[in-house]
Amino acid sequence: MGIRFIKLATIYFLIGIGLGIFMEMAHDHALMGVHAHINLVGWVSMALFGLLYHYFPQLANNKLGKAHFWLHNLSLPLFMLGLGFLLYGNESLLLLVIVGSNVLAISVIVFVVNVFKNLKVDTS
Ligand code: HEM
Ligand code: HEM
Predict the structure, then answer these.
(1) Which of 25, 45, 27 shows the shortest CA–CA distance to 36?
(2) In a mutational test of the pocket of ligand 1, which residue from 35, 40, 46, 83 has the highest number of ligand atoms less than 8 Å from its CB?
(3) Residue 53 near residue 2, CB atoms below 8 Å
(4) Is pLDDT of 123 > 70?
(5) Fewest 10 Å CB contacts: which of 47, 68, 115, 122?
(6) Helix (H), strand (E) counts: the chain
(7) Is the CB of 17 inside a 6 Å radius of any atom of ligand 1?
(8) Could you tell me the residue ranges of all domains in the chain?
(9) How does pLDDT run across 33-49, given as a tens digit for each residue?
(10) What are the b/e assignments for 107-119, b being 16+ CB within 10 Å?
(11) C-alpha torsion angle, residues 24, 25, 26, 27 (rounded to 10)
(12) 23 — phi, psi (to 5°)?
């Protein structure tokens, strides 16, 4: 699962900097919030999750780890899509922002619980 997280993270990186370049070229920074979160929650955070899940398999091989993976990867794109519309003044997808951001926050809680519960000091 660590590797899957890292591979998906690189896709967010590509989209994130692509959006940054578009924003520069178009002289339109309206989507800065989407750009910032795609880069930080998509690329940086997911790359970190990937490294953690890879180096500490005890985090990956349990229900909390799997729930975290799916909650994060389902909520973030929906959140970003809704936020993109919202930042351009279109509120028709506001529900995606509300549901997406809350599910993302829940996924963070699941991650924290997983770390505290299953990350143990290796004494071997
Ligand atoms: C080719 C690469 C990139 C380009 C062209 C680019 C472009 C931009 C632009 C145009 C803005 C809006 C600035 C403003 O209106 O004040 C911005 C903001 C931001 N970018 Fe990027 N960016 C790039 C890569 C990244 C990466 C890799 C990250 C994070 C890992 C990142 C994180 C951010 C953040 C956090 C903000 C918001 C800053 C604030 O709150 O003032 N960017 N970027
Ligand atoms: C449930 C998750 C999150 C929600 C609902 C959320 C929401 C927000 C909101 C409402 C803003 C203010 C935007 C504005 O004033 O236009 C913001 C800004 C920001 N957030 Fe988050 N955030 C979340 C997670 C994160 C995480 C995990 C990071 C970093 C790893 C992050 C980094 C930033 C940065 C750098 C800014 C300033 C750039 C900007 O104004 O767009 N956020 N966030």
Answers:
(1) 45
(2) 35
(3) yes
(4) no
(5) 122
(6) 6, 0
(7) yes
(8) 2-118
(9) 999 999 999 999 999 99
(10) beebbeebeeebe
(11) 40
(12) -60, -40
